[in-house]
Structures are given as C-alpha cells and as structure tokens.
C-alpha cells in the first residue's frame, strides 16, 4: 500500500507542478512581484494537501510567534526536498542564494528570475562573491528573508551534524537575526527515495539569535541550539511514529539518545 500511495503521490506532485506552472504563468509574470508569490505558495499548500490525502502525512508548526518582522536569515534543517518548499506559505518574501545554472532551466529559470533570487557561481571567489553579498544585503534591507541551510546540503535524519561556516559569515556581514528551524521530514520523505511514509511530525521555529554576536560565538550557539532541539524532536517524532522505518543514521542516533536518557535516570 505504501508503494502504491507513494507512486500516486509522486505522479500527483509533478502534475500539480507542471499544470500550475502552465496555467498560472500569465498571472505570475504579469503580477507585481510580491503578489506573484501567491502562485508558489499555493502550490506548496496544494502539495501538503496531496501528501495528507494520498500518503497520510501531516505536520504542525510550533513557534510561528518567533518569526520577526522585516529582514532576517531563516536557517532550517535540510533533510528532504519537502523542506525546500514546504514553509514558503509562512514566509513573507523569501530569497535564496542558488547556483546560477538553475536560471538556465526553461520556464523555471524565468520563475526564479522574477523573484530576484541571487544566483552564484559556486566556484567563484573575490569580486564575484562580493557582488553576491552586496546583492543579498540589498534584498535583506528591503525586508526579505534569506533562506540558508546551515549544513549546506540535505542530511539524513539523525546524521552527525555538518554545519558550514558560511552562515556565520553571512550573519556577520548582513547584521540581521538568524531564525533556527528544526524538523525531521526526512523520516517521511527520505532523500533520493521515491517512498513516502504516513505519519505526523512537527516543525519547530526556535527563538531568533539576535544580530551582533562574534561569528565564532554565534556559530557555536547556533549548533548547540539546533542540535539540542533536533535531538529532542527526533526522539519525540520516532516514538510518535513507530510505523516509520528508520534508516541507519536515525536508528543509531535514537539508540544513543535513549541510552543517555536512561543513564541520567539511573544516575
């Protein structure tokens, strides 16, 4: 049944994407930029509905009150393609720094150009990176929210943390708060797998780290805050969803955390 539901959801997911890009493109490209955000945001909401109705996966968001006004860095855990789009409806005017090659994809490239995303040649240095920072700062100062995944790429649920120092440099140079976000969608939508699993999970938006800290101190605080919350949420999510098969990273980390909790009780 899970295989069948996964196949049906994947088909529905891509049909939803293609049809919306075709049907709503005239409005998207003619509308004012901020108004045009309704197209991808409603696409994300439709995906949530499809995932609930076809697969049986639901989620809730805790900590929406922690989202500040104006410009800030939004720093979520990244485990799945799900979290690349899922929280867009709750952000006012987000912006990504993304590889420039994405702009060359027909239609999709025009979509991201419309939203003034910041393209970057990942191999570039010096003046090019200075220009990327300058453009990003301009977008942030206009009240936008920069989405940055602190670990850079997708990591399986429970995998050892691998935070990149780039977020500390952006924090230093942009001088805005950072909003950490933890979640474990990777348990239900594993990376590089077509299977989708039913269940319920939480997205936790944590208290913002205010601007102005030393970059090294900020980095240490970010890792400590996110990993502590992530570990706690991992245990809670696995216990609440015993039907979800665990990959090795999640199984190992869950066992470690349960052993630590048991030692504290017995001690």
TrEMBL record:
Pathway: Lipid metabolism. It holds the Pfam family Acyltransferase. InterPro entries: Plipid/glycerol_acylTrfase. The chain crosses the membrane at residues 7-30. GO terms for molecular function: acyltransferase activity. Residues 72-186 form the Phospholipid/glycerol acyltransferase domain. CDD domains: LPLAT_AGPAT-like. Keywords: Acyltransferase, Membrane, Transferase, Transmembrane, Transmembrane helix. It comes from the Bacteria. This is 1-acyl-sn-glycerol-3-phosphate acyltransferase. It comes from Hoeflea ulvae.
């Amino acid at each position: 049944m899970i295989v069948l539901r996964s196949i049906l959801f994947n088909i529905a997911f891509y049909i939803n994407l293609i049809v919306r890009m075709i049907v709503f493109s005239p409005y998207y490209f003619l509308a004012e930029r901020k108004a045009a955000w309704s197209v991808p945001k409603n696409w994300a909401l439709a995906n949530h509905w499809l995932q609930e109705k076809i697969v049986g996966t639901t989620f809730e968001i805790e900590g929406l009150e922690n989202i500040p006004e104006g410009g800030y860095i939004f720093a979520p855990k990244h485990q799945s393609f799900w979290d690349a789009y899922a929280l867009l409806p709750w952000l006012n005017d987000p912006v990504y720094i993304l590889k420039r090659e994405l702009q060359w994809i027909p239609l999709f490239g025009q979509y991201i150009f419309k939203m003034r995303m910041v393209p970057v040649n990942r191999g570039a240095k010096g003046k090019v990176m200075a220009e990327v920072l300058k453009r990003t700062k301009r977008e942030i100062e206009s009240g936008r929210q920069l989405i940055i995944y602190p670990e850079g790429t997708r990591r399986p649920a429970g995998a050892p943390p691998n935070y990149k120092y780039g977020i500390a440099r952006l924090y230093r140079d942009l001088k805005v708060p950072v909003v950490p976000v933890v979640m474990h969608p990777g348990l239900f939508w594993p990376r590089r797998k077509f299977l989708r699993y039913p269940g319920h999970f939480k997205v936790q938006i944590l208290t913002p780290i205010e601007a102005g800290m030393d970059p090294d101190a900020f980095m240490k605080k970010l890792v400590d805050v996110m990993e502590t919350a992530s570990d706690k949420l991992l245990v809670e999510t696995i216990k609440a969803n015993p039907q979800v098969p665990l990959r090795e990273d999640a199984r190992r980390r869950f066992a470690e955390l349960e052993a630590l909790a048991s030692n504290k009780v017995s001690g």
